[in-house]
Amino acid sequence: MKRIRTLIVYMLLSMSVFAQEAYVASFNTLRLGKNEKDYELTAKIISGFDLVGLIEVMNEEGVEDLVAALEKETGRKWDYHISPYPVGKSSYKEYFAYVWKKDRVEPLEIRGYYPNKDKVFSRPPYGADFKIDNIDFTFVLAHSIFGKNEKVRRREAFKIEDVYDYFQDMDPVENDIIIAGDFNLSALDEAFEGFLKHRDEITYTLDPRIKTTLGSSKLASSYDNMFISKKYTKEFEGKSGAVDFTKENYKMMKKRVSDHLPIFIILNSSVDDD
Q1: In this structure, which long-range contacts are made by residues 222-225, counting pairs with CB atoms below 8 Å and at least 24 apart in sequence?
Q2: What is the pLDDT of residues 82-101, one digit of tens each?
Q3: Computed over its alpha carbons, how large is the radius of gyration of the chain?
C-alpha cells in the first residue's frame, strides 16, 4: 500500500488562497456539555477546520456553547447538527454532532444511525451528507465501546465493513463515504483486516504510528482514525494529521479540552467527485 503522507501540526494554517482545500476533522470531545470545559481554548484548536464531527457529546447545550466560542474566535458564522437522541447503555449515553463554517459547508441530508439490528454496536454509527465547493460526501461518525479488553472492542470493529456498506448502498449516486471516529483500536489491528480488503479499496488516512490519546505523561494510543475508499474518494490526496494542542501539559489539557487529539484530512475541493 502506498505510504500515506501525514502532517503533524500544533495549529492549522489558514486556508490557502492558492488551492481549494477542505479541512474535515473528527474529535472525541470528552463529554462535551458536562465536563468542565474551556470552550474558548477548544474553539481555538478546531477553528481552522471547515467541518468537524464531534464524538462523546452529552447534550445540545455543549454544542451550542462550542459554536458560540467558534464564532467569537473566527468572526464567522457556524452552524451545527446533533443526532436526534443519544445512544449507549441505559446508564450512559452519547450524542453525535457536526459543526461547520456556514460560508464553506452546505449540509445536504441526514442519513441517521446505522440500524444495528444485531445489537453489535453499543453506540451505532451516525451519518450525514455535506458539500464543500465541488465535492460532496457522507460523513459517518463512530465511537466504539472500550470495554474490558480488546476482544470486546474487536467485536464492533469487525462490523465496520457492514456500516460502510449500509451507508454506501443508501444512495446509488453518492459513493463517497468517510468513516471517522474513536475506534479504541489501532487501524492496524486484525479486526480491520477484512475492511481494508474491501472491493472499494478502503484505507485509513492517519498513520497508525501517530498517537491520538492523552496519557498521564505522554501521548498514548492510536485510537482515532478516518477510513475512506481510494476508489471513490479521489479528493483525498494523502494529507492528514492530528492537532497536538497539549504542549506536554497532559493532565491540564485533559481537563480543559479532551483526552483525545482532533484528527483531520485535507481534501482537494476543486475536483468534481461525481
Answers
A1: 222/186, 222/187, 223/182, 223/183, 223/184, 223/185, 223/186, 223/260, 224/26, 224/28, 224/181, 224/182, 224/183, 224/260, 224/261, 224/263, 225/180, 225/181, 225/183, 225/187, 225/263
A2: 999 999 988 899 999 999 99
A3: 17
| Residue recorded with cell 472492542 | 153
Question: Is residue 105 within 8 Å of 132, Cβ to Cβ?
Answer: yes
What is the mean pLDDT of the segment spanning 63-92?
97
Helix (H) or strand (E) holding 251: helix 250-256
Alpha carbon distance 152, 196 (integer Å): 20
What are the angstrom distances between the C-alpha of 136 and each of 51, 199, 235? 12, 21, 10
> What are the φ/ψ torsions at residue 190 (nearest 5 degrees)?
-60, -25
Question: pTM value?
Answer: 0.93
Beta strands in 133-262 (DSSP E): 135-143, 177-182, 202-204, 224-229, 236-243
Task: Report, as an integer, the average pLDDT of 214-236.
Answer: 97
b (16+ CB within 10 A) / e for 188-207: ebebbeebeebebebbbbbb
How many whole angstroms separate alpha carbon 155 and alpha carbon 157? 6
What value, to the nearest 5°, has the Cα angle with vertex 65 and ends 61 and 69?
A: 170
Strands 92-101, 105-113: pairing is unpaired
3-state secondary structure of 65: helix
